[in-house]
Fold:
Amino acid sequence: MDYFSLLPEGCISEILSFTSPKDAATSSAISRGFKSAAESDVVWEKFLPSDYQHIISKSDSLLVSPSKKELYFSLCDSPFLTDGGKLSFSLDKGTGKKCFMIAARELVISWGDTPHYWKWSSHPDSRFSEVANLQFVCWLDMRGKIETRILSKRTKYVVYLVFKLANGFYGLETANAFVRFVDCESNNKAEERASVVSLSRQEGAGEKRSKRRVDGWMEIEMGNFFNDAGEDGDVEARLMEIRRLFAKGGLIVQGMEFRPE
Structure:
């Protein structure tokens, strides 16, 4: 006997809202009584961030979804631009936690406004209007900053540089990367614990290596942090190679992504 079918649908929906998006999406297979309840707006409203309407209101995109479940998966599968194209926003499908990518134009890049060193152009695979194209530098240094208050609370975040390598790239074997709370740790202190990352090498002892994303771009982990109550001010991620002043070129930067672990 299907005992769950004896419970009021509203009761089942309330129970499911305390589970996870994955549990709710698969629960309809357990019982016929779960199917309608598992797809109700009561359940999926709980999985959306509490400020999702405010975030959507800052987008130029028109998001139309008949149900909260469809809205949830739309936000997971189709990142949209917000804050005038400075950021892209999406949800982590398994948890509903917020993901943000900072556009390359919003990064602080040494010599970024000097055409001889960096050029700015559109890219057919980028979600932003422009990407940064490294022409030639010896001093590679870029940083991105985001406010902890807009991120999901009580969540561990990992920061990634999202990039591609142009044909004929050079000098991009290794760099140093770190993530810090701006108000809590100095640059010098953070540099002392920086990780060695490899943008182009597939192997190297003690190095973090780049991986290919499903969208065709590459990403390299820069560091991580725990966002507790969202009251730690700005968090900054930095990638740099300023010690070995060899020529470097062929790096295409889309942005830096702050994503739940």
